[in-house]
Every structure is written in structure tokens, then in C-alpha cells.
């Protein structure tokens, strides 16, 4: 039964990792466009909540994996 927690946690962690990759690609694309400082700052500020959400998702997924392993 606790194997389900491990698999769900792994899926949530992968979703968080994909979110982090999206954030990185978004900022890299903005840097390649040679935007001025204000525009680049606006892009980074718009990506920041998604970045923090992806980190939270990854952390919660890893916590589920640890709980599933310890209880299983």
C-alpha cells in the first residue's frame, strides 16, 4: 500500500522538476532576446512564482517518497 505513496511522490517530484526546467528555459529565452534590464527583470519577476511553486511541488513529492519508503 505504501508503494503507492512512493509512486505518487515520484510523479509529483517529476512534475516539479518539469516546472523548474520550464522556468529555466523561459529566462534563458528572455536573455537570448537581449532585452533591456527592466524587461528582463519583469520576465524574471513573472517567472518567480512558478519557480517557487515548482520547488514546493518537488519538495512535497520527495517528502511523499520518503514517507512511503519509511512506512513501507
Automatic annotation (TrEMBL):
It comes from the Bacteria. Keywords: Membrane, Transmembrane, Transmembrane helix. This is Molybdenum ABC transporter permease. The keyword Transmembrane helix applies. The keyword Membrane applies. The chain crosses the membrane at residues 6-27, 48-71.
